[in-house]
User: Fold Pentatricopeptide repeat-containing protein, mitochondrial from Sesamum angolense.
Amino acid sequence: MLPKEAEEVKLVVEVKVEVVVKEEEKVNAKLKMKQYPVALYLFDEMCKWGTPINEYTMNIVTNCYCLLNRVDFGFAILGSFFKCGYEPNVTTFNTLIKGLFLDDKVIEAEKLFKKLLTLKLCEPDEVTVLTVINGLCKAGHTLTAYDLLGLFEKTSFKPYVYSYSTVIDSLCKDRMVDEALQLLAKMIDNGISPNTVTYNSLVQGLCNFGRWKDAKDLISEMVDHKISLNAFTFSILVDAFCKDGMVKEAEDVVEIMMQRNMCPDVVTYTTLIDGYSLVGQIDKARKLLDSMPGRGLKPSIITYSSLINGYCKKGKVEEAWRLFLVVPQKGLDYNVVTYTTMLHGLFSAGRFAEGLKLFKDMQVQQVIPNLVTYNTLLNGLNKQIAEAFSLLHVMEDQGVNPNIITYGVLIHGLCKAGKLETARNLFNGLPSKGLQPDVQI
DNA sequence: CTAGGGTTAG
Assistant:
């Protein structure tokens, strides 16, 4: 029956799959939400009519709902499984676990996973392991993931390189680089070979803490184990050198790359441009940007943002603004960093009216301000105390938590306005907000 | 035969 309707469901499903994949496309996906009840309805109908629906189709539908952050609908499909005489399988549960994580329901995801084991709902496989470990790491529960990894090692479903890499990366990002190094040793002990990605995370972690010698040793280890360095590896090094002010060394890294017949990509050049901008070598940065098209590389919005920042830092706000205007002509969209950088530049040049106009444009374009944007704005408001405090409330309403810089800016403004008493009260109130003053006033 | 995952850089 109803081959047409079945076809329609398949179509809906396929459209979803295409739509959902990327974070940026979430909004787009939501626009298409309306079609889901249709899909559900059709499924319901098909079940009623006794049309054979296979479990593949139901798993696809479940996945679509999950990717749209509608894991509850995913669970509803679970009912259809039984109605249609199917048992949900490991794919179904993996999909649902992922869906719970995507919906920030970490506890429930863990619960479902434990249920799988205790109630033997299905035999977990390597996808289950990776889904749970990945979900925990992304939710910031690195240590839970770490412990779980240790548990899995003792069972028959061994974690493999992706699971280890994820945990190692999270440990590094959470500043537990030594633990990450130990985990590397352990995975090798367990017969799992780390790959370039695994090492890249560690190199980055070590560089972030200025552990150059350790990073160097690790790279030697990579070479010894015949694990090739890739564009990521080199970019990490370029970035690390630049951030430490060693631009010459960063240039050398790019040089080495080319000697090894590897083409630096957009990220590599952007990183170097950012480095030049940070140390004030703005002309070199500009030359590099202009050379990119000739190398077949299209500068990204981040490339432009870095250079705009460089011009602003040099006090060349006019030049920064010219570049800012070029961005749309290149078919690129401003992001929150571009706007905030330009805003900061205008304010520091005393061009407050233009800054506020830019902020309005940002809102029109529906680019969501972040903490840095708000701090920049507060700084720009200067002595306009009432406006500053109302902005403070706006940011809290938007769910953006003020940090120590926010209050530093506010206190600075209060002092300049001669409201020393208010400033002092605000300062003394910081510890109760869980903030530690970092400078003496 | 069809479905679920997938780690790193600006």
In short: Residues 1-34 of chain A have pLDDT under 50 and may be disordered. DSSP finds 25 helices and no strands in chain A. Chain A has five domains: 1-103, 125-225, 229-280, 300-365, 369-441.
